[in-house]
Amino acid sequence: MREIEPSWDFYRTFLTVLQEGSLSAAARELGLTQPTIGRHIDALEGVIGFQLFIRSPQGLIPTEAATDLKPHAEQLASNAAALLRAATGLGGGVRGTVRISASEVIGIEVLPPLLAALNDRYPDLVIELSLSDAVEDLMRREADIAVRMVAPEQDALITRRIGGIPLGLHAHRRYLDKHGFPDTLEDLLHHRTIGFDRESAFVRAIRKRVPLIELMRPSFRADSNLAQLAAIRAGSGIGVCQVALARRDPDIVRLFKTEFELPLETFVVMHENLKTTPRCRATFDALVEGLLAYIGT
Amino acid sequence: MREIEPSWDFYRTFLTVLQEGSLSAAARELGLTQPTIGRHIDALEGVIGFQLFIRSPQGLIPTEAATDLKPHAEQLASNAAALLRAATGLGGGVRGTVRISASEVIGIEVLPPLLAALNDRYPDLVIELSLSDAVEDLMRREADIAVRMVAPEQDALITRRIGGIPLGLHAHRRYLDKHGFPDTLEDLLHHRTIGFDRESAFVRAIRKRVPLIELMRPSFRADSNLAQLAAIRAGSGIGVCQVALARRDPDIVRLFKTEFELPLETFVVMHENLKTTPRCRATFDALVEGLLAYIGT
DNA sequence: TCTCTCTCATTCATTTTTGTATATCAGATA
DNA sequence: TATCTGATATACAAAAATGAATGAGAGAGA
Prior knowledge:
homodimer; DNA-binding; transcription regulation (chains A, B); DNA-binding transcription factor activity (chains A, B); LysR_subst-bd (chains A, B); WH-like_DNA-bd_sf (chains A, B); LysR_HTH_N (chains A, B)
């Protein structure tokens, strides 16, 4: 007895409906029509024997079954996208699409010039940049190359250690003019500081290094390092950011240069299977080279 | 501009052709016909702009492009299978299919009674057992649950340490009657021994523990632990196997009980997403319980 | 050499899938 | 209340994919 396997296209339709919330919206997204999408869902429900959505005049409400299957469908979509990227880059030469995952700060402040230079050099190279502080999983093919702040553990990944990007305490001159210069680290307790919203591995690392941080009550909180950087630039208070970025603005002052410096270990990581792919290889090398130069400054 | 994405079914067809080696064979496998399969491949080649196969009267010979894309397609198939497994097990209760990955020895000698009992208890549970000494990747959804001899490193996996399965040196009485009893470990150098064909992490671990092994020239080599066990049972010589398995046969004698004992660390591992799925939960618990009992004997 | 069997390619009828048009329902807004 | 906009469901026609049949080439074996 052979089970009849549903068309893989049904999975794509299913995921799109889940993402868009209605048959009509999914139809627009996929370039199909609403009746077709409806039939796909009907067929899929028929095969798996469960209702996936509750139809309503407002759209389709996913059942528990649908939410259970969602992560699988998402991974399927990631893989399909990765396959297509691999396909477009076939045939020698640096061409096709490469998808890079990086943190927001790195992606916004550091990578753009590097990637622009890369694009100048290889006009047929298309770069997708996925910014998130959540660690995107290279194993799941959500990206081809990642810039990471933690050493990856999987063996199937090839990793190049860049080194520590130095972080320092900074404030805008405008803030310091108004609130004074902290003379000692303890003075920070009476200053406006910029901190994290939630606990994270990165925050714990800072805490461990500088226990004083524990006592500080930040007057501005944001999980986004980018928002923190913006807050420093706007003169909201004293915060932690990359030394090299702060130096770009002559009005930003580094505080406690000797007492506080935290190196942020950085790695460029790529899936092993991609190392022979010209576009990935070129991008990987450019990122390594560019980030090394950035650290050197 | 929106790229036209090929049907995901084309990927399935592509992979099947790659696996089967011909359009006709793939058609039989998929329950379609040869012209259909041919059209799928034509369409896929059209979209990606590369020839995937060289047609010949003997079948289709994959081009480099095709072999480059193969791992992606395989992963896609794994994911689709995982989604389908998840779908069949929906709706509460222990039902549906669960896929277990284990080493050959564990899968053949240890798990069957456990799984039989599990199946007795849950008649609607279907178990797939994938035996390989290569570590199947749970992240790639090639299996739902794995019995492993190395601690996994990914955070997304939930792991239960079972403990060390004791390994010992054994020989069949028939062999010992013929070749005599080794009095010291050094005597092993003059005995027929059973060893590994290739180097592996496991072999290196043994070497480190018992450097003498280094000097031994096995007269029977096999990578398969199962084959080694069979060789011991057949009286081919002295080899390493699980103490508990050897004890089952009263004619197998354990040698150097005090001088040689190697605990084989064992873990049961499952993807975190599956922990709330009844069928996976029940299977996981049964494996943990059963293996703990096995170790206890 | 002939035949048998495997393969892929092509043609045409059939089946299936899809799209168009329309009906219906629910909510927001004038 | 009337209307407009979003949604799903359904009927029927159009388009597309599929299957059946056939042709042709390449080996294997008698």
